[in-house]
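Handout, page 2. Input:
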Amino acid sequence: MTGKRKSSMRTQLVNAIQLQEVEEEMQQKQEEEEKSRRDAANSTNTELYQKSYTVEEAVESIGFGRFHILLFVIMGSANIVEAMEIMLLAVVSPEIRCEWRLEDWQVALVSTMVFFGFMVCGVFCGYVADKYGRWKVLFGGFVWAAYFSMLTSFAPSYIWFIFLRSMVGCGIAATSQGFVLKTEFIPAKHRAILLPLASVFWMVGSLLIIILGMSVVPTLGWRWMIRLSVIPGLILIGLFQFIPESARFQVSAGNVQGAVATLQRIAQMNGANLPEGELRESVVTERGKAVTLISPAFRRTSLLLWYSWFVASFCYYGSVLSSSELLEKNLLCVTDANVEHDIKYNQEEALCYCIPFNKADYQTLLISCLGEVALIPLNIGLLNVVGRKCSMVILLLLSAIFFMLVNVCTTMFGFTLLLFLLRSLVSMYFNVVYIYTAEVYPTSVRSLGMGFCTSFSRIGGMIAPFIAQVLMSKSVLLALSPFSLACCLCVAGTVLLPIETRGRALLQNE
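Output:
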């Protein structure tokens, strides 16, 4: 019995030891499983933490949609207002010449003072936009321009008129920020298609002011034409509320939450999603530094672009004012001249010269304005196939040729066709320069770079009236030759530009 008890106790002890070993093994297995789960969770969290995206990636991921259509229409409408304010000068010039008995240089000074205001405020608007935001500058500029444009219609004298128009120029200087804002929201592959289409809105503005001049000036006078021309600007000020601040600017200014909210709003409108992770991009502490534009990385680009913008404005407004001057003073050489065309401008009678535009003159201006959009498909094709630089070279060479062809004696139809093609080519070139500039500079100085460029362009705009409106009276060939020569010289500068921006992502930092 004693042996059996000892054997039973030994068996129980072995079983107890085995049970304890099983329990310890199960506990160890549970601990390993728990550790494995923790490691997996930590790994997932780390992976999620490491996932991030930039504004450029977010813009490309969201793609093109309803927001971009809204952006395109509203920012494009800013070009309508700008075109109306600038083209207004070509329509009003004959009227104020009559009312205040102005000489050629006084008429030219009106356009020059507008561009002077544009030049002075262009750099300032760019600096403020890089410091405090594109949207604020754009909104404030249009309020300013609408206010002073309305005051212009009450100008009691020539001196007041040119002062108030120069104030309008200061406000219009902000319109380039609308192009910057639009560029920073549009995906790279759509920029070469959408940005050239801005010419459509500029053409609409030009057509509106010419139609206003044709219908209002003969009955109510030029003052009421200016008052009515302010209406689109007032409507646009209200529409600006639907456009957010640039997400690229918000990130560069350190407002990451604001940038995410903006991108989420755009994604929701487009029915898209933002990339996984969190928005990460370095804060740019030194924004709007002019020294960046002449740093080794951008010195050559900036210097050549300043001249390119000078030529773009010089030639564009040269083509606009030349056509207006040729029609107003009947200086063009046509083989099928009518009786009205035979009344030539006489320099000695300049103070009492008073022949306003007739219906045929307005129609010629309307047709030439259509030229600004007629070759948009060609413009888009050039941008996508040969790139920005090569497009500029081709357009400059063709513009130089057509400036000289205007001197050729032809029929009225032939003259209208030449103006049509010249306006097309010069407008296309101006558009490509706009696109290239917005793409080549980083976000930290994009607005300032655009501001400097637009200021240099206004120097061209300031000089153009004295050639197109003053020198034209002495010799048509002598007046058109500087525009052709400027295009030829600019070809060499364009070839030397170091960067091609076709298909390149927009830079955030230097």
